[in-house]
Amino acid sequence: MAACYNLDRTEFYPIVLQIEIIVNNTSNPLQLNVGYLYNKPIGTIREVPVNLERIKIDDVVITDLESIVRLSRTREGLLLQVDAAAKLKTNCTRCLQEFFLPVDVEFEELYQFPSRQREETDLILPHDGYIDLRQIYREYLILALPIKRVCQADCKGLCPVCGANLNNISCEHQTEPPESTEKLEDNTTV
Q1: Residue 142: which H helix or E strand, with range?
Q2: Who's near 8: CB < 8 A, 6+ residues apart?
Q3: What's the half-sphere exposure (Cβ side, CA atoms, 13 Å) at 69?
Q4: Cα–Cα dist 159/179, whole Å
Q5: How do beta strands 98-112 and 12-15 pair?
Q6: What is the DSSP letter of 172?
Q7: How far apart are CA 131 and CA 12, in angstroms?
Q8: What Rg value do the Cα atoms of the chain yield, rounded?
Q9: Beta carbons of 37 and 78 less than 8 angstroms apart
């Protein structure tokens, strides 16, 4: 913070200097410019908000993405720590209708400098300084999905006979008890 003094008056006017480094790419908001961190001292940390209304990554539709990407300069490269919340388009496992399911995920990845010894699975910092996070977001958000995804807690599912969505209509097959329970009732009376 700098100061400006007016010699005619005894007032103090603070001047706030704000330096903003733009790291989000407007054409691909999940591509971050991290090149400025390559030559920073170890321990340098930057937080980058990544908020998107809607994005499609391959076959995954993501809405209301709110996340913070924390970039930390380490001896090996850059450590990315991400805390994200989003809604993913998926299908209900009971009625097969598409809906958006809220998902929260935290993950971290280490991008190593190219000169380091590494394995095949290690992520490498690109020479141009831009990291594309689309595939990493896609993978971790899919992994955060529960196995049984239900559109609503009281979802009735599909009719096993005709396949009708029981949330929308009731079919004639649902008035009869299932055959397996009838057989159980007959066996208990003996």
Answers
A1: helix 134-143
A2: none
A3: 25
A4: 14
A5: unpaired
A6: G
A7: 44
A8: 27
A9: yes
pLDDT digits (tens, 9 = 90+) for 59-93: 899 999 999 999 999 988 899 999 999 999 999 99
Rounded to whole angstroms, how far apart are CA atoms 55 and 51?
10
Residue whose token pair is 């961190």: 37
Nearest to 101 by CA among 86, 111, 113: 86
Q: Each residue of 109-153: pLDDT tens digit?
A: 998 887 766 666 678 888 888 888 999 999 999 999 999 999 988
Quote the CA–CA distance of 131 and 128 in Å, as a whole number.
9
* Structural tokens at position 86: 């989003």
Strands 12-15 and 2-5: antiparallel
Sequence spans of domains, the chain: 22-155, 156-190
3-state SS, residue 153: coil
- Going by their DSSP bridges, the two strands 2-5 and 98-112 should be labelled as unpaired
Q: Is the full-model pTM beyond 0.85?
A: no
Cα–Cα distance for residue pair 69/49, rounded to 1 Å: 6
Question: Residue 109 in contact with residue 132, Cβ under 8 Å?
Answer: no
Query: How many beta carbons lie within 10 A of that of residue 188, not counting itself?
Result: 7
In a 3-state reduction of DSSP, which class is residue 180?
Answer: helix
